[in-house]
Amino acid sequence: MRHNIMGRRLGRSSKHRKSMFRNLTTELFRHERIKTTEARAKSIRPIAEKLVTLARRGDLHARRQAARELHDPAVLQKLFDDIGPRLAERNGGYTRMYKLGPRRGDAANMVLLELVEREEG
After folding, report:
1. Is 106 inside any structural domain?
2. What does each C-alpha distance from 28 to 4, 5, 61 come to in angstroms?
3. Is the pLDDT reported for residue 39 higher than 70?
4. Does any domain span residue 95?
């Protein structure tokens, strides 16, 4: 029975899964959109939303909390200097998912996960 067990395992060990989530979130903030499987996108969406909420706060403690998840200083600076102030007017819902259909090789459902008010370019 799976009572009170939260989250998807995605066929990986816990260290590999945590590292994958960290890499996907970093790339989401770097490029402001990523193409990934639906299960992965649903797993990293809450992490990304919490990091944007920290960026909206913008104080030193929030920056240090976000630095635990994002190990790239350039992405961390972009999150706090660009993305956080840009999404300051919103009360949540900072990401959106577009379904793209099945992947050719294994028919995994693919999605485009992007920030809501992203800069074009």
Report:
1. yes
2. 29, 27, 22
3. yes
4. yes
Q: Which tens digit of pLDDT belongs to each residue from 5-28?
A: 888 888 899 999 999 999 999 999
The DSSP line for 47-73 is HHHHHHHHHHH-SHHHHHHHHHH---H
The overall longest dimension of the chain from CA atoms, in Å, is 48
Prediction pTM value = 0.91
Domain that holds residue 79: 14-115
DSSP conformation class of 45: H
Q: Tell me, yes or no, whether 7 lies in a domain.
A: no
CA atoms of 41 and 16, how far apart (whole Å): 16
DSSP 105: T
* 63 within domain boundaries: yes
d(CA 48, CA 21): 10
Q: Sign of the CA dihedral 65, 71, 75, 78? A: positive
Quote the CA–CA distance of 37 and 5 in Å, as a whole number: 22
